[in-house]
Amino acid sequence: MKPIRISRARIAFFHDVVMAALSFVAALYLRLGDAVSEYPPDSVLLWTALFTAVCAAVFASMGLYRGIWRYASLDDILGIAKAVTLASLIFLPVMFLLTRLQDLPRSLLVINWFVLLALLGGPRILYRIFKDRSVEAVLVRDGHRRVPVLMVGAGDGTELFIRATRHRPGAGY
Fold first, then answer.
1. Would you say the pTM of this structure is higher than 0.90?
2. What's 2's DSSP letter?
């Protein structure tokens, strides 16, 4: 019997969908505080499910899962910001058509944008820092004069070269 293989892209997609659901509930709590318990649980569950479904569709269509987390960069964070913005902009008219936004706080979408961006981008950046094995490699630059290098290619060899130059202080690149 063959073991079931789950691709990293599917794990990342599952992570992002779970984070979308958590972000909606967290944003609702941040907006309302303890008053969130006054909302009917059925409504909160419906809103969360709709937001999660919209996010899943947007995330899958935006191509967020082509890259690998160990190469996470500013471009990935910008892609996440675009996807989160699009999901929020699609969710707004959907909720308007269903509820006329009577029960949903208007500021919830703004709060949710920030929470979801943090929940999607934060783990990617932390994973990258963990894989580089130091925060220094990400945050600190030494005072040595360096030779500019143009790297052609985006494969593992390029990434290995960059890591090797980071861990050798006298490399000069």
1. no
2. P
CA distance linking residue 40 with residue 29, whole number of Å: 14
Instruction: Dump pLDDT digits (tens) for 101-146.
Output: 888 888 999 999 999 999 998 888 888 777 766 655 444 444 455 5
Taking Cα atoms as reference points, which of 82, 13, 78 lies closest to residue 52? 13
φ and ψ at 41, to 5 degrees?
-60, -30
Find where tokens 């990617």 sit. Answer: 124
Which whole-number Å values give the CA distances from 139 to 99, 102, 134, 173, in the listed order? 46, 46, 9, 17
DSSP notation for 83-120 = HHHHHHHHHHHHHHHHHTTSSS-TTHHHHHHHHHHHHH
